[in-house]
Amino acid sequence: MMATYSLANERLRALEDIEREIGAILQNAGTVILELSKEKTNERLLDRQAAAFTASVQHVEAELSAQIRYLTQVATGQPHEGSSYSSRKDCQMALKRVDYARLKLSDVARTCEQMLES
């Protein structure tokens, strides 16, 4: 039973790390948008920020996919370390938050790409 709580806490910490990284991505996007609004933009800064943004989005997407795979295993009753109704409900809510975060990240990426193209 203790191992189950440890695993659950580890999963929650991973989701919190992902959430923090999403916050950093949004800050990065804000920096790019602010720089693009200037008359004379710093191309090197934009290149660095765009590369950091892309790398972070790819990392978040990979981490979210790993979380979704795990939650799918739990939700479909495949072998895993412990389960309960509460855990399943938490997983469902986490999946909804993950889907929402993916949607928002996609919107931010699309906006940044459009701004970089113009």
Automatic annotation (TrEMBL):
Component of the Mediator complex, a coactivator involved in the regulated transcription of nearly all RNA polymerase II-dependent genes. Mediator functions as a bridge to convey information from gene-specific regulatory proteins to the basal RNA polymerase II transcription machinery. Mediator is recruited to promoters by direct interactions with regulatory proteins and serves as a scaffold for the assembly of a functional pre-initiation complex with RNA polymerase II and the general transcription factors. PANTHER family: MEDIATOR OF RNA POLYMERASE II TRANSCRIPTION SUBUNIT 11 (PTHR22890). It holds the Pfam family Med11. Coiled coil: none annotated. Gene3D superfamilies: 1.10.287.3490. Component of the Mediator complex, which is composed of MED1, MED4, MED6, MED7, MED8, MED9, MED10, MED11, MED12, MED13, MED13L, MED14, MED15, MED16, MED17, MED18, MED19, MED20, MED21, MED22, MED23, MED24, MED25, MED26, MED27, MED29, MED30, MED31, CCNC, CDK8 and CDC2L6/CDK11. The MED12, MED13, CCNC and CDK8 subunits form a distinct module termed the CDK8 module. Mediator containing the CDK8 module is less active than Mediator lacking this module in supporting transcriptional activation. The keyword Cytoplasm does not apply. InterPro entries: Mediator_Med11. Belongs to the Mediator complex subunit 11 family. Its main location: nucleus. This is Mediator of RNA polymerase II transcription subunit 11. Keywords: Activator, Nucleus, Transcription, Transcription regulation. It is found in: Nucleus. The keyword Magnesium does not apply. GO terms for biological process: regulation of transcription by RNA polymerase II. GO terms for molecular function: transcription coregulator activity. GO terms for cellular component: core mediator complex; mediator complex.
